[in-house]
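User: My instructor asked us to take a sequence, write out its structure as tokens, and then describe one feature of it. I'm not sure where to start. Here is the sequence I was given:
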Amino acid sequence: MRGRTRTLARHPLIMEIWLGRVAGSALGEDGRMEPYSALSHLECPRCGRTHDASVRQGRCRSCEAPLLARYDLAGVTGGPDEIATRPPHLWRYHELLPVSAPKHVVTLGEGMTPLLPAPRLGEHLGLPGLMIKDEGLLPTGSFKARGAAVGVSRARELGVTAMAMPTNGNAGAAWSAYAARAGLRMLVAMPVDAPMITRVETVATGGELRLVDGLISDAGRLVADAVADEPGWFDVSTLKEPYRIEGKKTMGFEIVEQLGWRMPAVIIYPTGGGVGLIGIHKALTEARDLGWVTGPLPRLVCVQSNGCAPIVRAFESGARESEPWVGARTIAFGINVPKALGDFLVLDALADTSGIAVAVDDADLLADLRLAGALEGVFLCPEGAATVTAARVLREQGWLHRDDEVVLLNTGSGLVYPDTVPVHAPVLSRSDRLALPDVRDHSNP
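Assistant: Let's start with the prediction itself. The structure tokens for your sequence are:
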């Protein structure tokens, strides 16, 4: 019966019924109503100032740093056993999400993406314990759906009616879809060379699209300037609001739950704005503080492209934050971020976990995209393929060991980037004879 419940719960309407009728009426062990969320306040990780979480907030008013949601962990009574009874979506972790009641949840059925063993690819890389967390199966085709689901839900709860953001593509598509679901307006500024499919997704779901002849940093400046003069609009740029990261941190919860509430040795993450890596670190820290997991946190790996590697350069120099990368360009468009607002939080996460930052070549990641597809049948996005290349490099350097259990994050579907795989197939006429290759000649790439 549980398997059937899990299957049905993936349907958004059925999930909304569960959210409203089951989770909203859950009782604690003492018979009292348990709060849906344990959110207590917002905190600046740079200066330590606290902020009221019950009103709309952007960045810290003292130092302009991103704000992080903090929870009353002592009041969280649910745990792995209780979570196991809930439908397989990210709202199963609702106590550690910022939305105060089920009625405020905006959902398209997001969460609980597969954690796939990759034995053939792993053996090829010398990492037989390799796994891929495949975020390409989420609504809108990327991990951005997690941040959009929670960010839009909380924005609507706090009275926001119109939002604007810069994006390299996937986030704009995701936030447009969830804004439409919530009945909110969404304006998206996207570099003119962003993937066409993300442009189509944005427009198809009602987003008001503006193309910018420049990088995401240029689009961000235009959004910030426009929103500053229009109080009715809310800037939901990366880490300029506190709740996108809360959705993305559920990747961390899912990984350890799918492993039986234990942590892998290493998690390798493609990093642009860095919210996913920061979020995973935050989730695992919260889970450990709650006693859901024990032991050292996984070593986190920040992966960037040689064409745009500001955080790698900062890590290698021992800097506290990065400097803007001049002339940023990479085929892995989602990580083409010249300067991340939360770069210091990424560097903190690497330091806290004895992690590392590494840059890879576009040519290598494109080759590994094809390799992963041929060996495991997974069509990675370029950013996800960069983690394969990073694993190869770190294994060759001896930083990764053969017995390490390593999780790669594929942050989106390769279908969003069809131009990454050129197709050169012979064309046959109807009268031609189809010659079959000799099966004995088949070998791994």
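For the description part of your assignment, you could build on this observation: The first helix runs from residue 2 to 9. Try explaining in your own words what that tells you about the chain.
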